[in-house]
Design goal:
- The N terminus is likely disordered.
- The chain contains twelve helices and 22 strands.
- The longest helix has 28 residues.
- The protein is globular.
- By secondary structure, it is of the alpha+beta class.
- It has three domains: about 180 residues, no CATH class; about 170 residues, Sulfite Oxidase, Chain A, domain 2, CATH 3.90.420.10; about 110 residues, Immunoglobulin-like.
- Strands 3, 6, 7, 10, 11 and 12 form a six-stranded mixed beta sheet that branches. Strands 5-4-13-8-9 form a five-stranded mixed beta sheet.
- Helix 2 packs across helix 5, helix 3 crosses helix 5 and helix 3 packs across helix 6.
- The protein binds the ligand Nc1nc2c(c(=O)[nH]1)N[C@H]1C(S)=C(S)[C@@H](COP(=O)(O)O)O[C@H]1N2 and molybdenum atom.
Protein backbone atom coordinates (compact mmCIF):
# COMPACT_ATOMS: atom_id res chain seq x y z
CA UNK A 1 0.00 0.00 0.00
CA UNK A 2 1.40 3.35 -0.96
CA UNK A 3 1.58 6.21 1.41
CA UNK A 4 -1.03 7.91 -0.67
CA UNK A 5 -3.63 5.17 -0.33
CA UNK A 6 -3.18 5.19 3.41
CA UNK A 7 -3.90 8.84 3.70
CA UNK A 8 -6.85 9.15 1.38
CA UNK A 9 -9.80 10.77 3.14
CA UNK A 10 -12.60 8.41 4.24
CA UNK A 11 -15.32 7.97 1.64
CA UNK A 12 -19.07 7.66 2.01
CA UNK A 13 -19.16 3.96 3.01
CA UNK A 14 -16.61 4.67 5.73
CA UNK A 15 -18.68 7.55 7.06
CA UNK A 16 -21.82 5.42 7.08
CA UNK A 17 -19.87 2.80 8.99
CA UNK A 18 -18.65 5.42 11.49
CA UNK A 19 -22.28 6.38 12.12
CA UNK A 20 -23.17 2.73 12.70
CA UNK A 21 -20.20 2.10 15.00
CA UNK A 22 -20.82 5.17 17.13
CA UNK A 23 -24.48 4.17 17.45
CA UNK A 24 -23.46 0.64 18.47
CA UNK A 25 -21.19 2.12 21.14
CA UNK A 26 -24.20 4.09 22.39
CA UNK A 27 -26.47 1.03 22.34
CA UNK A 28 -23.94 -1.18 24.11
CA UNK A 29 -23.38 1.44 26.79
CA UNK A 30 -27.11 1.96 27.17
CA UNK A 31 -27.67 -1.78 27.62
CA UNK A 32 -24.96 -1.95 30.26
CA UNK A 33 -26.24 1.05 32.19
CA UNK A 34 -29.78 -0.32 31.90
CA UNK A 35 -28.65 -3.68 33.28
CA UNK A 36 -27.08 -1.86 36.20
CA UNK A 37 -29.78 0.63 37.11
CA UNK A 38 -33.01 -0.29 35.38
CA UNK A 39 -33.19 -3.55 33.38
CA UNK A 40 -36.51 -2.60 31.83
CA UNK A 41 -35.42 0.76 30.49
CA UNK A 42 -33.10 -0.36 27.71
CA UNK A 43 -33.86 2.14 24.93
CA UNK A 44 -34.07 -0.54 22.23
CA UNK A 45 -36.46 -2.67 24.25
CA UNK A 46 -38.56 0.31 25.28
CA UNK A 47 -38.94 1.21 21.61
CA UNK A 48 -39.81 -2.36 20.67
CA UNK A 49 -42.29 -2.70 23.51
CA UNK A 50 -43.98 0.52 22.50
CA UNK A 51 -44.25 -0.75 18.93
CA UNK A 52 -45.91 -3.90 20.29
CA UNK A 53 -48.37 -1.92 22.39
CA UNK A 54 -49.25 0.36 19.48
CA UNK A 55 -49.63 -2.48 17.00
CA UNK A 56 -53.30 -2.93 16.12
CA UNK A 57 -54.78 -6.19 17.41
CA UNK A 58 -55.35 -7.77 13.95
CA UNK A 59 -51.70 -7.16 12.98
CA UNK A 60 -50.55 -8.59 16.31
CA UNK A 61 -52.66 -11.70 15.78
CA UNK A 62 -51.40 -12.03 12.26
CA UNK A 63 -47.80 -11.79 13.50
CA UNK A 64 -48.37 -14.39 16.23
CA UNK A 65 -50.06 -16.73 13.77
CA UNK A 66 -47.47 -16.35 11.01
CA UNK A 67 -44.21 -15.86 12.86
CA UNK A 68 -45.16 -17.78 15.98
CA UNK A 69 -42.66 -17.39 18.74
CA UNK A 70 -40.29 -15.76 16.23
CA UNK A 71 -42.47 -12.64 16.22
CA UNK A 72 -40.34 -11.01 18.92
CA UNK A 73 -37.07 -11.67 17.14
CA UNK A 74 -38.49 -10.28 13.93
CA UNK A 75 -39.83 -7.16 15.62
CA UNK A 76 -36.64 -6.49 17.55
CA UNK A 77 -34.60 -7.15 14.41
CA UNK A 78 -36.70 -4.64 12.43
CA UNK A 79 -36.35 -1.97 15.11
CA UNK A 80 -32.58 -2.49 15.16
CA UNK A 81 -32.37 -2.45 11.37
CA UNK A 82 -34.20 0.89 11.18
CA UNK A 83 -32.01 2.32 13.94
CA UNK A 84 -28.81 1.20 12.19
CA UNK A 85 -29.99 2.57 8.83
CA UNK A 86 -30.62 5.92 10.49
CA UNK A 87 -27.21 5.59 12.15
CA UNK A 88 -25.61 5.20 8.72
CA UNK A 89 -27.45 8.32 7.58
CA UNK A 90 -26.14 10.11 10.68
CA UNK A 91 -22.61 9.08 9.71
CA UNK A 92 -23.07 10.42 6.18
CA UNK A 93 -24.41 13.68 7.55
CA UNK A 94 -21.48 13.97 9.95
CA UNK A 95 -19.24 13.89 6.90
CA UNK A 96 -20.77 17.22 5.88
CA UNK A 97 -21.08 18.70 9.32
CA UNK A 98 -20.58 16.98 12.63
CA UNK A 99 -23.60 18.62 14.27
CA UNK A 100 -25.94 17.19 11.65
CA UNK A 101 -24.89 13.61 12.34
CA UNK A 102 -24.78 14.15 16.08
CA UNK A 103 -28.22 15.74 15.86
CA UNK A 104 -29.74 12.70 14.15
CA UNK A 105 -28.22 10.36 16.74
CA UNK A 106 -29.39 12.58 19.60
CA UNK A 107 -32.89 12.70 18.13
CA UNK A 108 -33.03 8.90 17.88
CA UNK A 109 -31.96 8.56 21.49
CA UNK A 110 -34.42 11.24 22.57
CA UNK A 111 -37.33 9.34 21.00
CA UNK A 112 -36.26 6.06 22.63
CA UNK A 113 -35.77 7.77 26.00
CA UNK A 114 -39.18 9.43 25.90
CA UNK A 115 -40.66 6.00 25.09
CA UNK A 116 -38.79 4.43 28.02
CA UNK A 117 -39.86 7.11 30.48
CA UNK A 118 -43.49 7.01 29.43
CA UNK A 119 -43.90 3.24 29.69
CA UNK A 120 -46.23 2.05 32.46
CA UNK A 121 -44.46 1.84 35.84
CA UNK A 122 -41.59 3.95 34.49
CA UNK A 123 -39.88 6.52 36.65
CA UNK A 124 -37.10 9.04 36.46
CA UNK A 125 -34.45 6.31 36.54
CA UNK A 126 -35.72 5.07 33.18
CA UNK A 127 -34.15 8.11 31.53
CA UNK A 128 -30.66 7.17 32.67
CA UNK A 129 -29.92 4.41 30.12
CA UNK A 130 -31.12 6.69 27.33
CA UNK A 131 -28.89 9.48 28.58
CA UNK A 132 -25.92 7.11 28.67
CA UNK A 133 -26.74 5.90 25.16
CA UNK A 134 -26.79 9.44 23.85
CA UNK A 135 -23.58 10.54 25.55
CA UNK A 136 -21.63 7.44 24.50
CA UNK A 137 -23.01 7.43 20.95
CA UNK A 138 -22.44 11.09 20.21
CA UNK A 139 -19.11 10.97 22.05
CA UNK A 140 -17.94 8.08 19.87
CA UNK A 141 -19.07 9.93 16.75
CA UNK A 142 -17.14 13.01 17.88
CA UNK A 143 -13.96 10.99 18.35
CA UNK A 144 -14.32 9.25 14.99
CA UNK A 145 -15.21 12.48 13.25
CA UNK A 146 -12.07 14.10 14.60
CA UNK A 147 -9.91 11.20 13.53
CA UNK A 148 -11.46 11.10 10.10
CA UNK A 149 -11.14 14.79 9.36
CA UNK A 150 -7.79 15.81 10.80
CA UNK A 151 -5.70 13.67 8.53
CA UNK A 152 -7.38 14.29 5.21
CA UNK A 153 -5.91 15.58 2.05
CA UNK A 154 -5.36 19.18 1.32
CA UNK A 155 -4.61 20.74 -1.99
CA UNK A 156 -1.00 21.47 -2.53
CA UNK A 157 -0.59 25.15 -1.90
CA UNK A 158 0.76 25.60 -5.41
CA UNK A 159 -2.23 23.90 -7.05
CA UNK A 160 -4.59 26.50 -8.42
CA UNK A 161 -8.36 26.62 -8.11
CA UNK A 162 -11.01 26.84 -5.46
CA UNK A 163 -10.53 25.04 -2.18
CA UNK A 164 -11.91 21.56 -2.08
CA UNK A 165 -14.90 20.96 0.11
CA UNK A 166 -13.40 18.72 2.76
CA UNK A 167 -16.32 16.37 2.76
CA UNK A 168 -16.17 15.65 -0.93
CA UNK A 169 -12.51 14.92 -1.29
CA UNK A 170 -12.85 11.18 -1.40
CA UNK A 171 -15.09 11.34 -4.41
CA UNK A 172 -13.12 13.87 -6.35
CA UNK A 173 -11.08 12.55 -9.16
CA UNK A 174 -8.13 14.77 -8.33
CA UNK A 175 -4.92 13.09 -9.10
CA UNK A 176 -2.01 12.53 -6.83
CA UNK A 177 -0.02 15.41 -8.10
CA UNK A 178 -2.76 17.86 -7.12
CA UNK A 179 -3.26 16.48 -3.65
CA UNK A 180 -0.92 15.84 -0.83
CA UNK A 181 -1.37 14.43 2.57
CA UNK A 182 -0.95 16.51 5.65
CA UNK A 183 0.19 14.54 8.69
CA UNK A 184 -2.53 12.85 10.70
CA UNK A 185 -4.36 9.56 11.06
CA UNK A 186 -4.93 7.68 7.85
CA UNK A 187 -8.14 6.07 6.70
CA UNK A 188 -6.67 2.88 7.98
CA UNK A 189 -6.27 4.56 11.34
CA UNK A 190 -9.91 5.57 11.31
CA UNK A 191 -10.97 2.04 10.42
CA UNK A 192 -8.81 0.59 13.17
CA UNK A 193 -10.21 3.03 15.71
CA UNK A 194 -13.76 2.27 14.63
CA UNK A 195 -13.10 -1.48 14.81
CA UNK A 196 -11.79 -0.99 18.35
CA UNK A 197 -14.93 0.95 19.24
CA UNK A 198 -17.12 -1.79 17.70
CA UNK A 199 -15.34 -4.30 19.95
CA UNK A 200 -15.95 -2.00 22.90
CA UNK A 201 -19.66 -1.88 22.02
CA UNK A 202 -19.80 -5.68 21.87
CA UNK A 203 -17.97 -5.91 25.21
CA UNK A 204 -20.47 -3.51 26.80
CA UNK A 205 -23.34 -5.59 25.43
CA UNK A 206 -21.75 -8.77 26.79
CA UNK A 207 -21.14 -7.16 30.16
CA UNK A 208 -24.81 -6.12 30.25
CA UNK A 209 -25.85 -9.74 29.83
CA UNK A 210 -23.41 -10.88 32.49
CA UNK A 211 -24.71 -8.30 34.96
CA UNK A 212 -28.27 -9.47 34.31
CA UNK A 213 -27.36 -13.09 34.97
CA UNK A 214 -25.74 -12.18 38.28
CA UNK A 215 -29.09 -11.14 39.71
CA UNK A 216 -30.93 -13.77 41.73
CA UNK A 217 -32.53 -16.11 39.20
CA UNK A 218 -34.38 -19.41 39.03
CA UNK A 219 -31.18 -21.37 39.61
CA UNK A 220 -30.76 -19.72 43.03
CA UNK A 221 -34.18 -20.74 44.28
CA UNK A 222 -34.62 -23.85 46.40
CA UNK A 223 -38.19 -25.11 46.41
CA UNK A 224 -39.58 -27.44 49.07
CA UNK A 225 -39.01 -31.09 48.26
CA UNK A 226 -41.97 -32.92 46.74
CA UNK A 227 -41.35 -35.67 49.28
CA UNK A 228 -42.07 -33.34 52.21
CA UNK A 229 -45.76 -33.97 52.94
CA UNK A 230 -45.78 -31.31 55.65
CA UNK A 231 -45.07 -28.65 53.11
CA UNK A 232 -47.59 -29.22 50.37
CA UNK A 233 -50.10 -31.49 48.74
CA UNK A 234 -48.28 -33.24 45.96
CA UNK A 235 -50.11 -34.90 43.14
CA UNK A 236 -49.19 -38.51 42.51
CA UNK A 237 -46.41 -39.75 40.29
CA UNK A 238 -46.76 -38.51 36.75
CA UNK A 239 -48.01 -41.30 34.49
CA UNK A 240 -46.18 -42.58 31.48
CA UNK A 241 -47.77 -41.21 28.35
CA UNK A 242 -48.10 -42.65 24.87
CA UNK A 243 -44.97 -40.68 23.90
CA UNK A 244 -42.92 -43.74 22.95
CA UNK A 245 -45.74 -45.82 21.53
CA UNK A 246 -47.26 -43.36 19.07
CA UNK A 247 -44.66 -41.72 16.85
CA UNK A 248 -45.28 -38.01 16.34
CA UNK A 249 -47.64 -37.54 19.26
CA UNK A 250 -47.23 -34.56 21.62
CA UNK A 251 -45.41 -35.62 24.83
CA UNK A 252 -47.74 -35.93 27.81
CA UNK A 253 -45.66 -33.37 29.68
CA UNK A 254 -44.23 -30.62 27.52
CA UNK A 255 -40.44 -30.39 27.77
CA UNK A 256 -39.65 -26.93 29.20
CA UNK A 257 -37.57 -26.02 26.18
CA UNK A 258 -40.61 -26.66 23.95
CA UNK A 259 -43.18 -24.95 26.14
CA UNK A 260 -44.83 -22.23 24.07
CA UNK A 261 -44.25 -18.65 25.10
CA UNK A 262 -46.69 -15.85 24.38
CA UNK A 263 -46.39 -12.41 25.92
CA UNK A 264 -45.92 -8.75 25.07
CA UNK A 265 -42.37 -8.67 26.36
CA UNK A 266 -39.50 -8.54 23.90
CA UNK A 267 -36.82 -9.62 26.28
CA UNK A 268 -37.26 -11.79 29.33
CA UNK A 269 -37.73 -9.65 32.43
CA UNK A 270 -34.91 -10.14 34.91
CA UNK A 271 -36.54 -10.00 38.30
CA UNK A 272 -34.44 -9.92 41.45
CA UNK A 273 -36.17 -12.44 43.68
CA UNK A 274 -34.67 -10.88 46.83
CA UNK A 275 -36.44 -7.57 46.35
CA UNK A 276 -39.53 -8.94 44.56
CA UNK A 277 -42.88 -8.71 46.37
CA UNK A 278 -46.49 -9.56 45.61
CA UNK A 279 -49.10 -7.07 46.82
CA UNK A 280 -52.83 -7.69 47.15
CA UNK A 281 -54.71 -4.39 47.21
CA UNK A 282 -57.81 -2.61 45.99
CA UNK A 283 -61.16 -3.65 47.44
CA UNK A 284 -59.68 -5.59 50.37
CA UNK A 285 -59.95 -5.40 54.13
CA UNK A 286 -56.20 -5.13 54.52
CA UNK A 287 -53.49 -4.68 51.93
CA UNK A 288 -51.05 -7.58 51.98
CA UNK A 289 -47.50 -7.61 50.66
CA UNK A 290 -45.60 -10.91 50.51
CA UNK A 291 -42.01 -11.74 49.73
CA UNK A 292 -41.00 -14.82 47.81
CA UNK A 293 -40.06 -16.53 51.07
CA UNK A 294 -43.47 -15.62 52.53
CA UNK A 295 -45.07 -17.47 49.61
CA UNK A 296 -42.87 -20.53 50.09
CA UNK A 297 -43.86 -20.64 53.77
CA UNK A 298 -47.54 -20.93 52.86
CA UNK A 299 -49.49 -24.07 52.09
CA UNK A 300 -48.23 -25.16 48.66
CA UNK A 301 -50.20 -27.22 46.18
CA UNK A 302 -48.97 -29.05 43.14
CA UNK A 303 -51.22 -29.54 40.11
CA UNK A 304 -50.98 -30.76 36.52
CA UNK A 305 -52.54 -28.08 34.35
CA UNK A 306 -52.55 -27.53 30.60
CA UNK A 307 -52.06 -23.88 29.76
CA UNK A 308 -53.66 -22.67 26.53
CA UNK A 309 -53.38 -19.42 24.58
CA UNK A 310 -56.40 -17.69 23.11
CA UNK A 311 -54.33 -16.97 19.97
CA UNK A 312 -54.05 -20.67 19.27
CA UNK A 313 -55.77 -21.54 16.02
CA UNK A 314 -57.54 -24.88 15.64
CA UNK A 315 -54.79 -27.51 15.61
CA UNK A 316 -52.23 -24.87 16.63
CA UNK A 317 -49.20 -25.21 18.92
CA UNK A 318 -49.99 -22.76 21.75
CA UNK A 319 -50.86 -25.19 24.51
CA UNK A 320 -48.57 -26.91 26.97
CA UNK A 321 -48.80 -29.28 29.90
CA UNK A 322 -46.81 -28.78 33.09
CA UNK A 323 -46.82 -29.62 36.79
CA UNK A 324 -47.25 -26.36 38.68
CA UNK A 325 -46.38 -25.70 42.31
CA UNK A 326 -47.92 -22.72 44.04
CA UNK A 327 -50.11 -21.11 46.64
CA UNK A 328 -53.88 -21.34 46.23
CA UNK A 329 -55.39 -18.06 45.09
CA UNK A 330 -58.17 -18.45 47.64
CA UNK A 331 -55.62 -18.69 50.48
CA UNK A 332 -53.98 -15.47 49.33
CA UNK A 333 -57.27 -13.63 48.89
CA UNK A 334 -58.39 -14.78 52.33
CA UNK A 335 -55.32 -13.12 53.85
CA UNK A 336 -56.40 -9.79 52.38
CA UNK A 337 -60.15 -10.24 52.85
CA UNK A 338 -61.99 -9.47 49.60
CA UNK A 339 -64.53 -6.65 49.74
CA UNK A 340 -68.05 -6.84 48.41
CA UNK A 341 -67.83 -4.84 45.20
CA UNK A 342 -64.93 -6.51 43.38
CA UNK A 343 -65.68 -8.64 40.32
CA UNK A 344 -62.19 -8.65 38.82
CA UNK A 345 -58.65 -9.51 39.87
CA UNK A 346 -56.42 -7.11 37.99
CA UNK A 347 -52.91 -8.55 37.96
CA UNK A 348 -49.94 -6.31 37.22
CA UNK A 349 -46.52 -7.53 36.13
CA UNK A 350 -43.09 -5.99 36.76
CA UNK A 351 -43.47 -3.89 33.62
CA UNK A 352 -46.93 -2.54 34.46
CA UNK A 353 -48.66 -4.84 31.98
CA UNK A 354 -52.08 -5.89 33.27
CA UNK A 355 -54.18 -9.05 32.99
CA UNK A 356 -57.74 -9.35 34.26
CA UNK A 357 -59.37 -12.44 35.74
CA UNK A 358 -63.03 -12.84 36.70
CA UNK A 359 -63.02 -13.09 40.50
CA UNK A 360 -65.95 -15.52 40.57
CA UNK A 361 -64.23 -17.93 38.17
CA UNK A 362 -60.89 -17.80 39.94
CA UNK A 363 -62.48 -18.60 43.29
CA UNK A 364 -65.08 -21.19 42.25
CA UNK A 365 -63.11 -24.09 43.70
CA UNK A 366 -60.81 -24.82 40.77
CA UNK A 367 -57.07 -25.07 41.43
CA UNK A 368 -56.25 -21.44 40.69
CA UNK A 369 -52.86 -20.54 42.12
CA UNK A 370 -49.93 -18.20 42.21
CA UNK A 371 -47.33 -20.60 40.89
CA UNK A 372 -43.69 -20.49 41.93
CA UNK A 373 -42.62 -23.79 40.42
CA UNK A 374 -42.91 -25.58 37.10
CA UNK A 375 -42.01 -29.23 36.62
CA UNK A 376 -40.10 -29.52 39.88
CA UNK A 377 -38.01 -26.35 39.72
CA UNK A 378 -38.48 -22.61 40.01
CA UNK A 379 -40.32 -20.99 37.11
CA UNK A 380 -38.05 -20.35 34.14
CA UNK A 381 -37.68 -16.61 33.48
CA UNK A 382 -39.60 -17.03 30.21
CA UNK A 383 -42.54 -18.46 32.10
CA UNK A 384 -42.83 -15.85 34.81
CA UNK A 385 -40.05 -16.12 37.39
CA UNK A 386 -40.44 -15.62 40.27
CA UNK A 387 -44.24 -16.04 40.31
CA UNK A 388 -47.23 -16.13 38.00
CA UNK A 389 -50.90 -16.88 38.11
CA UNK A 390 -52.28 -20.16 36.74
CA UNK A 391 -56.05 -20.74 36.50
CA UNK A 392 -57.21 -24.01 35.00
CA UNK A 393 -59.86 -23.59 32.33
CA UNK A 394 -59.12 -19.96 31.48
CA UNK A 395 -57.02 -18.84 28.55
CA UNK A 396 -53.67 -17.37 29.58
CA UNK A 397 -54.55 -13.81 28.58
CA UNK A 398 -57.27 -13.65 31.26
CA UNK A 399 -55.40 -15.50 33.96
CA UNK A 400 -51.80 -16.52 33.61
CA UNK A 401 -50.04 -13.23 34.49
CA UNK A 402 -46.29 -13.85 34.50
CA UNK A 403 -43.77 -11.84 36.56
CA UNK A 404 -46.74 -10.83 38.69
CA UNK A 405 -46.25 -8.14 41.35
CA UNK A 406 -49.77 -7.08 42.23
CA UNK A 407 -53.32 -8.36 42.40
CA UNK A 408 -55.83 -5.54 42.65
CA UNK A 409 -59.40 -6.40 43.60
CA UNK A 410 -61.51 -4.08 41.48
CA UNK A 411 -64.36 -4.01 38.97
CA UNK A 412 -64.38 -4.29 35.18
CA UNK A 413 -66.14 -0.92 35.14
CA UNK A 414 -63.41 0.81 37.11
CA UNK A 415 -60.26 -0.62 35.53
CA UNK A 416 -59.46 -2.32 32.25
CA UNK A 417 -56.58 -4.69 31.56
CA UNK A 418 -54.23 -4.59 28.59
CA UNK A 419 -56.19 -6.94 26.34
CA UNK A 420 -59.57 -5.70 27.50
CA UNK A 421 -58.61 -2.27 26.18
CA UNK A 422 -57.83 -3.96 22.88
CA UNK A 423 -61.25 -5.52 22.53
CA UNK A 424 -60.58 -9.06 23.74
CA UNK A 425 -63.13 -10.85 25.91
CA UNK A 426 -62.96 -10.60 29.71
CA UNK A 427 -64.37 -14.02 30.54
CA UNK A 428 -62.70 -16.50 28.25
CA UNK A 429 -62.96 -20.18 29.17
CA UNK A 430 -60.69 -22.43 27.12
CA UNK A 431 -62.69 -23.94 24.28
CA UNK A 432 -62.67 -27.73 24.19
CA UNK A 433 -60.56 -29.12 21.40
CA UNK A 434 -58.90 -32.18 19.90
CA UNK A 435 -55.68 -31.73 17.96
CA UNK A 436 -54.27 -34.16 15.42
CA UNK A 437 -50.47 -34.32 15.81
CA UNK A 438 -49.89 -37.23 13.45
CA UNK A 439 -50.16 -37.59 10.52
CA UNK A 440 -49.29 -34.00 9.61
CA UNK A 441 -51.47 -32.02 7.25
CA UNK A 442 -50.80 -32.98 3.60
CA UNK A 443 -48.43 -35.75 4.65
CA UNK A 444 -47.73 -38.51 2.09
CA UNK A 445 -48.29 -41.89 3.75
CA UNK A 446 -47.61 -45.43 2.68
CA UNK A 447 -50.70 -47.60 2.50
CA UNK A 448 -51.21 -49.88 5.49
CA UNK A 449 -51.47 -49.48 9.24
CA UNK A 450 -50.77 -45.96 10.56
CA UNK A 451 -51.64 -44.27 13.82
CA UNK A 452 -53.74 -41.17 13.86
CA UNK A 453 -52.95 -39.49 17.15
CA UNK A 454 -52.77 -36.29 19.13
CA UNK A 455 -53.94 -34.55 22.28
CA UNK A 456 -57.31 -33.22 23.37
CA UNK A 457 -58.28 -30.83 26.12
CA UNK A 458 -61.40 -29.78 27.95
CA UNK A 459 -59.98 -28.00 31.01
CA UNK A 460 -62.67 -26.78 33.34
CA UNK A 461 -65.28 -28.62 31.26
CA UNK A 462 -65.13 -32.01 32.89
CA UNK A 463 -61.89 -33.05 31.26
CA UNK A 464 -61.50 -35.30 28.24
CA UNK A 465 -63.91 -38.24 28.28
CA UNK A 466 -63.41 -39.57 24.78
CA UNK A 467 -61.83 -38.55 21.50
CA UNK A 468 -63.46 -39.53 18.23
CA UNK A 469 -62.09 -39.68 14.71
CA UNK A 470 -63.90 -39.45 11.41
CA UNK A 471 -62.29 -40.46 8.12
CA UNK A 472 -63.60 -38.95 4.89
CA UNK A 473 -66.70 -37.65 6.67
CA UNK A 474 -67.63 -41.15 7.86
CA UNK A 475 -68.94 -42.17 11.28
CA UNK A 476 -67.20 -40.95 14.46
CA UNK A 477 -65.07 -43.74 15.88
CA UNK A 478 -63.77 -43.76 19.46
CA UNK A 479 -60.01 -43.44 19.64
CA UNK A 480 -57.92 -45.04 22.37
CA UNK A 481 -57.02 -42.59 25.10
CA UNK A 482 -53.82 -42.29 27.07
CA UNK A 483 -53.55 -41.94 30.88
CA UNK A 484 -55.96 -39.57 32.61
CA UNK A 485 -53.97 -36.80 34.31
CA UNK A 486 -57.07 -35.00 35.54
CA UNK A 487 -59.71 -32.67 34.20
CA UNK A 488 -57.37 -29.71 33.92
CA UNK A 489 -54.83 -31.58 31.82
CA UNK A 490 -54.84 -32.63 28.21
CA UNK A 491 -55.11 -36.23 27.19
CA UNK A 492 -53.28 -38.12 24.50
CA UNK A 493 -55.25 -40.26 22.08
CA UNK A 494 -54.64 -42.41 19.00
CA UNK A 495 -56.49 -44.57 16.55
CA UNK A 496 -54.82 -47.22 14.39
CA UNK A 497 -56.01 -46.80 10.81
CA UNK A 498 -55.66 -49.04 7.77
CA UNK A 499 -54.87 -46.41 5.21
CA UNK A 500 -55.86 -47.22 1.64
CA UNK A 501 -54.44 -45.52 -1.42
CA UNK A 502 -56.01 -42.20 -2.25
CA UNK A 503 -56.62 -38.82 -0.72
CA UNK A 504 -58.28 -38.76 2.69
CA UNK A 505 -59.76 -36.31 5.16
CA UNK A 506 -59.08 -36.94 8.84
CA UNK A 507 -61.01 -35.14 11.58
CA UNK A 508 -60.95 -35.45 15.37
CA UNK A 509 -63.27 -34.17 18.06
CA UNK A 510 -63.43 -34.39 21.83
CA UNK A 511 -66.27 -35.53 24.06
CA UNK A 512 -65.94 -34.11 27.57
CA UNK A 513 -66.13 -36.13 30.74
CA UNK A 514 -69.59 -34.69 31.28
CA UNK A 515 -70.74 -35.82 27.83
CA UNK A 516 -70.56 -32.60 25.82
CA UNK A 517 -69.66 -33.35 22.20
CA UNK A 518 -67.41 -30.82 20.48
CA UNK A 519 -69.31 -29.07 17.69
CA UNK A 520 -67.81 -27.82 14.46
CA UNK A 521 -68.47 -24.15 15.13
CA UNK A 522 -65.78 -22.20 13.37
CA UNK A 523 -64.38 -19.11 15.06
CA UNK A 524 -61.18 -17.10 14.82
CA UNK A 525 -59.05 -16.50 17.94
CA UNK A 526 -60.36 -12.93 18.40
CA UNK A 527 -62.05 -12.12 20.74
CA UNK A 528 -62.44 -15.25 22.89
CA UNK A 529 -60.66 -18.16 21.25
CA UNK A 530 -60.74 -20.21 18.04
CA UNK A 531 -63.05 -23.16 17.60
CA UNK A 532 -63.83 -25.78 15.00
CA UNK A 533 -63.08 -29.43 14.48
CA UNK A 534 -59.45 -30.02 13.51
CA UNK A 535 -59.54 -31.52 10.04
CA UNK A 536 -56.69 -32.28 7.67
CA UNK A 537 -55.92 -33.95 4.36
CA UNK A 538 -53.40 -36.70 3.76
CA UNK A 539 -52.55 -38.68 0.67
CA UNK A 540 -51.87 -42.38 0.80
CA UNK A 541 -49.98 -43.93 -2.04
N1 LIG B 1 -46.88 -10.46 32.29
C1 LIG B 1 -47.46 -11.13 31.29
N2 LIG B 1 -48.06 -12.29 31.56
C2 LIG B 1 -48.65 -12.99 30.58
C3 LIG B 1 -48.67 -12.51 29.26
C4 LIG B 1 -48.04 -11.26 29.01
O1 LIG B 1 -48.02 -10.76 27.89
N3 LIG B 1 -47.44 -10.61 30.06
N4 LIG B 1 -49.28 -13.25 28.28
C5 LIG B 1 -50.30 -14.19 28.69
C6 LIG B 1 -50.70 -15.12 27.65
S1 LIG B 1 -51.58 -14.48 26.36
C7 LIG B 1 -50.50 -16.46 27.74
S2 LIG B 1 -51.22 -17.52 26.65
C8 LIG B 1 -49.66 -17.02 28.80
C9 LIG B 1 -48.55 -17.83 28.19
O2 LIG B 1 -47.73 -18.34 29.19
P1 LIG B 1 -46.34 -18.99 28.79
O3 LIG B 1 -45.60 -17.97 27.97
O4 LIG B 1 -45.66 -19.33 30.07
O5 LIG B 1 -46.65 -20.21 27.98
O6 LIG B 1 -49.07 -16.02 29.60
C10 LIG B 1 -49.93 -14.97 29.92
N5 LIG B 1 -49.24 -14.16 30.88
MO1 LIG C 1 -52.42 -16.11 25.22
Amino acid sequence: MTNDEQTRAPGRPTWAWLGVVSTLVGLGTGQLVAALVRPDASPVLATGSTVIDLTPTPVKNWAIENFGTLDKTILLGSVLLVVLLLAAVAGLLARRRFVLGAGVEALLVLVATVLAVTRPQAGFLDAVPGLATGLAGVGALAVLHRLATTGTLRRRPEAAGTPVDEGDQADQAETDDELAAVPGPSRRGVLLASAALALLAAAAGGAARAVQRLRGGPADVVLPEASDPALFHPTGAFPRGLDDRVAGITPLRTPLADFYRVDTRLDVPVVDVESWTLTIDGDVEREVTLTFDDLLAMDLVERDITLTCVSNSVGGPYAGGARWLGVRLTDLLAMAGVGSTADQILSTDVDGMTISTPLAVATDGRDAMIAVGMDGAALPREHGFPARMVVPGLYGFVSACKWITRMTLTTYDAQQAYWTERGWATDAPIKISARIDTPRALEQLDAGRVNIGGVAWAQGSGGVGRVQVSIDGGPWTDARTGPDVGNDYWRQWYLPWDAEAGSHTVAARVVTGSGTVQQNVRAEPFPDGASGVHTLQVSVG
